Amino acid sequence: MLRGEKVKLRAVEREDLKTLYQLEQDLDLVLMADGNWQPIPLATMEKGFDKDVENEDRSWFIIEADGKVIGSVGLHHRDRRLHMSAFGIAIYDREYLGKGYGRDAIATLFKWAFDIQNYRRIWLETWSTNERAIRCYQSLGFVEEGRLRQHGYYDGKYFDVVLMGLMRSEWEARRNR
Ligand SMILES: CC(C)(COP(=O)(O)OP(=O)(O)OC[C@H]1O[C@@H](n2cnc3c(N)ncnc32)[C@H](O)[C@@H]1OP(=O)(O)O)[C@@H](O)C(=O)NCCC(=O)NCCS
After folding, report:
1. Does domain 2-175 have CATH number 3.40.50.10490?
2. Ligand 1 atom closest to 125 (CA)
3. Would you give the distance in Å from CA 25 to the centre of its chain?
4. Contact, 24 vs 30, CB < 8 A?
5. Distance from the CA of 131 to the center of ligand 1, in angstroms?
6. Could you give the percent of the chain with pLDDT greater than 90?
7. Has residue 106 got a pLDDT over 90?
8. Residue ranges with strand state E in the chain
């Protein structure tokens, strides 16, 4: 288990899937984390989990606060040769949005990713309209590295997808400030 100041991160267990499934019914939040979201039965989620359980190289964490599951965070598109990975996060409990829980969860994950797992670079994609996410990522040191123009669509409008990145050297420099 990884401990932050406000959150704990632990591996997703099969029993968590039902809770995550229920939390993921808040479509406005879910779409920001996965623009391609489609309604799937819980059984499909469980099947995917069971298939992936053999994969020792996965890193999908439950975010827990005050003893409750509030979302999940993890690394994906991991590239061991280049020591880099993409990352994704979603807090689905509205009570916990915009109160620093996301920042703490990400900082806790990155301490592990950079200091223990020896990643060199972490990157992400986010919607240009997702101001809360962009501000959260900027506050951790992420910088914009590019934009995919009109690459997303929501609520009848196209928007840009923003690519952001953080190097370990930048992360360490901020920590030692
Ligand atoms: C993105 C997410 C992880 C951020 O975590 P969080 O706990 O909500 O954010 P934090 O409180 O750590 O930081 C939010 C920042 O945005 C600001 N903010 C808070 N609410 C905001 C809002 N509604 N609009 C714009 N900015 C907002 C805060 O002031 C803070 O910025 P600051 O450090 O400059 O003061 C979380 O909001 C989330 O999971 N959202 C739903 C799914 C999602 O968008 N996932 C990310 C997909 S890329």
Report:
1. no
2. 48
3. 17
4. yes
5. 7
6. 84
7. yes
8. 2-3, 8-11, 60-65, 68-79, 84-91, 121-127, 143-154, 157-167
pTM for the structure as a whole: 0.95
CA 43–ligand 1 middle distance (angstroms): 31
**What pLDDT, in 10s, does the model give residues 24-58?**
989 889 998 888 888 899 999 999 999 988 877 77
Cα(134) to ligand 1 centroid in Å equals 7
For ligand 1, atom 46, the nearest C-alpha belongs to: 33
Q: Distance from the CA of 89 to the center of ligand 1, in angstroms? A: 11
20, 36, 101, 135: which to mutate for ligand 1, most atoms within 8 A of CB? 135
Domain ranges in the chain? 2-175
Q: Closest Cα to atom 18, ligand 1: which residue?
A: 132
The arithmetic mean of pLDDT across residues 154-174, rounded, is 95
Asked whether the beta carbons of 20 and 44 are under 8 A apart, the reply is no
Helices (H), 24-161: 27-33, 42-52, 101-110, 131-139
- Per residue in 122-144, pLDDT (tens digit) is 999 999 999 999 999 999 999 99
